[in-house]
Structure formats: structure tokens, C-alpha cells
Design brief:
- By secondary structure, the protein is an alpha+beta fold.
- The chain is built from 7 helices and 11 strands.
- Strand 9 and strand 10 form a beta hairpin.
- The longest helix has 17 residues.
């Protein structure tokens, strides 16, 4: 389960599964998903993702059930075999339970293939490609100037940032689990990513820092008063390079 069907999360979820597999499939098949692409159009970042993996993107045509039948049957199997009778405390709990169930399900003999899927995975891996030698930079990324309300937006949610960064350019990044904000590489905010929409996430430490800064700003500034405002006229002579022996014509 991933937070959204937007490109950033779809690519993050795909990469997480590929890393678990430790190999790259030669084809990645998608069924008319807007976050990946439709027709000749590709969503931003998809082409570079496929190029880095050296794999082929296959976009199925609309209304083509034969091409995606095996995937739909597998999804139906998950719905009828995994979901019934279960409760989930959070998306993380869902993923933990699903992972545990898949390990047990893949160790059972499947009637169609007359063997256990776990016994065939090594042969599948042998036919796949190696992982790319360079790291993939995926996820949500944005660079903004932090406003006076000291919040940044990721997807549809707002996350607080250390108010000492107000007015400065900050880098916002997020993966499937965390939202982080940095200034020149220094971490100034770190939140668990919220899967709901339209939420405001606040760190109590940021609120306290804002309170202290506000109180400091409201304190009257002390201005030193000088009683003697008389200036020595010799200061002007020294400023213009005049000496006592100089004559002004």
C-alpha cells in the first residue's frame, strides 16, 4: 500500500519492490495509469526511471482485459484470501500483515503451476537484470522560501519547520514514510508522512521556538542616549586632510 497514485509514490513503491527482489524485471507493465503515462505521453520522471533501470515500459491499451488478466486475477485472490476478517491499525500495519501473509502464501503449492512460487523465484531472478550501479533519486522534492507561518506543503498536507529558517530557501523531500526539510544539508524538520489529505502537522518544538522568537521581537530595543551632541570641529579638518597650518583661500 502506498499513500497516493501520483508519479512520485508509484515510482517509490516500484523501486521498493525491485529492491526487495534484488533484480530488475525486463518489462514493467502498467494498465493505463495516469501517474505513469497514457498513449505516447509519459509522466515526468518515468522515462529517466526506466532508463536508469534499463528496463522497458509497457503501457496496456484501454479496454484490453486479456493483457492484464493475470494481474486482475491475482488482485482478486488477494481481496478474497487476505482481506476478509482482518483489521488494520494503520497503513504500516496493513503492509506488515500483507508481507507476512505473502511469505506463507508463496510457500504453498499452487494448483495451476503444481509447485510452490518460492521454488521458482531463483529461476525468475536469473532471467532478470542487475540492479543499477548508481542510486536513484526518487520521491517528492521541492525548493521554496520558508514563509512567516513556517510551514511547507508536501502533496496536500502542511508540515512545520524550525522558525529560525523563516525567509531562507529550504529543500523539501519526502519518501513513502518521512517528510524532511533541510537548509544547505542541515536538517530543520523531520516528520512522519501523513496519508490523510488536507492535514496540518506541527512539531511542538517548532511552536516553542516561534513563541520565543515572537517574545524577543516584541521586547523594546534599548537605544543609548548620548548627552553631549557637540562635535569637535577638528574632526572635519581630519576628515578633509586639513592641518592646523593649512590656509583656506
Amino acid at each position: 500500500m502506498i499513500p497516493t497514485r501520483k508519479t512520485e509514490d508509484l515510482l517509490l513503491g516500484s523501486w521498493e519492490l525491485i529492491q526487495q527482489l534484488q533484480r530488475v524485471p525486463r518489462r514493467l507493465i502498467w494498465d493505463n495509469e495516469p501517474g505513469i503515462g497514457r498513449g505516447l505521453r509519459r509522466a515526468e520522471g518515468v522515462a529517466s526511471f526506466m532508463g536508469t533501470l534499463a528496463t522497458k515500459l509497457v503501457l496496456l491499451k484501454p479496454r484490453d482485459p486479456e493483457s492484464k488478466g493475470i494481474v486482475e486475477r491475482r488482485n482478486g485472490f488477494f481481496e478474497t484470501s487476505f482481506m476478509p476478517g482482518r483489521t488494520f491499525a494503520s497503513p504500516h500495519d496493513f503492509n506488515v500483515q500483507f508481507t507476512d501473509w505473502l511469505e506463507r502464501a508463496n510457500a504453498r503449492v499452487v494448483r495451476m503451476i503444481k509447485t510452490r512460487p518460492i521454488d521458482l523465484i531463483d529461476a525468475d531472478r536469473a532471467a532478470m537484470l542487475a540492479l543499477p550501479p548508481i542510486p536513484l533519486h526518487l520521491g517528492w522534492r521541492n525548493r521554496v522560501r520558508l514563509g512567516r507561518d513556517y510551514y511547507v506543503r508536501c502533496d496536500t498536507n502542511d508540515y512545520s519547520v524550525d522558525p529560525t529558517a523563516i525567509g531562507r530557501i529550504v529543500d523539501v523531500s519526502a519518501d513513502l514514510n518521512r517528510v524532511r526539510v533541510r537548509i544547505d544539508g542541515r536538517l530543520v524538520a523531520d516528520h512522519a508522512r501523513v496519508w490523510a489529505r488536507g492535514m496540518t502537522v506541527t512539531d511542538p518544538a517548532h511552536v516553542e521556538t516561534a513563541r520565543l522568537l515572537r517574545a524577543e521581537f516584541q521586547q523594546p530595543r534599548i537605544i543609548e542616549v548620548v548627552d553631549d551632541l557637540t562635535r569637535d570641529l577638528a574632526d572635519y579638518d581630519r576628515a578633509f586632510g586639513l592641518s592646523a597650518d593649512s590656509q583656506v583661500i
